[in-house]
Write a structure and sequence with these properties.
Its EC number is 5.4.2.6. By secondary structure, this protein is an alpha/beta fold. About 45% of the residues lie in helices and about 10% in strands.
Length: about 220
């Protein structure tokens, strides 16, 4: 029986990809070149330093490690400045209605995000109080597909892994939930999230009772 819902943040609750792009674009422009949204696609899911290397190669620029670290720090500051201006309008479609159902059914909730900026984003969109536990990048040592972030969520909610339902938009996140012995709802495309137990394009119109009937 499912007693808790564990949610990834980016791609499930909000979409911060545009803010990463704007921060990288700002940095690239400062170096004298530009990056397109199409180019930015290859940076998704890539670490900050690796993304920086890809961008510098694109711009034909070579820098010392010290200079790279300074640029990466500046990019993150730009990104934080952008996400701090997020509002409830940035919440993805269907999320607010779905969480109203969750509250009504008294289902425990936890955030399971590898982002170290998760709390800032939740505060900006007004959803900090919607989670009984928040596990973010400051509380874990291993990223997804390691299940650590979700196992810690279950632990803080005092439920067993098999009593948890994970909501994820990324392949590595779905694998993390599965590796933790949990059922997983994929948010995105069925042909991509093949390991998920059930997949929805988004949370619009998703009924909790029907969902749990499918899962159980």
């Amino acid at each position: 029986m499912i007693k808790a819902f564990l949610f990834d943040l980016d791609g499930v609750i909000v979409d911060t990809a545009i803010y990463h792009y704007q921060a990288w674009k700002q940095m690239a422009n400062g170096l004298g070149f530009d990056i397109s949204e199409e180019f930015n696609e290859q940076l998704k899911g890539v670490s900050r330093m690796d993304s920086l290397d890809i961008i510098l190669t694109h711009g034909g620029i070579e820098l010392s490690q010290e200079e790279k670290l300074a640029l990466a720090t500046q990019k993150n500051e730009n990104y934080l400045n952008l996400v701090s201006k997020m509002s409830p309008e940035d919440i993805l479609p269907g999320v607010t209605d779905f969480f109203a159902q969750v509250k009504k059914e008294n289902i425990k909730t936890a955030l399971g995000s590898v982002s170290k900026n998760a709390k800032l984003i939740l505060e900006s969109i007004g959803m900090s109080d919607d989670f009984d536990a928040i596990i973010d990048g400051t509380k874990i040592a291993k990223g997804k597909p390691d299940p650590e972030v979700f196992l810690k969520g279950a632990e803080e909610l005092v439920v067993l892994p098999e009593e948890c339902l994970v909501f994820e938009d990324a392949v590595a996140g779905v694998e993390a939930g599965k590796n933790g012995g949990m059922k997983v709802v994929g948010i995105g495309k069925k042909e991509v999230l093949t390991q998920a137990d059930v997949v929805f394009e988004n949370l619009v119109g998703v009924d909790i009772h029907e969902l749990l009937a499918q899962i159980n």
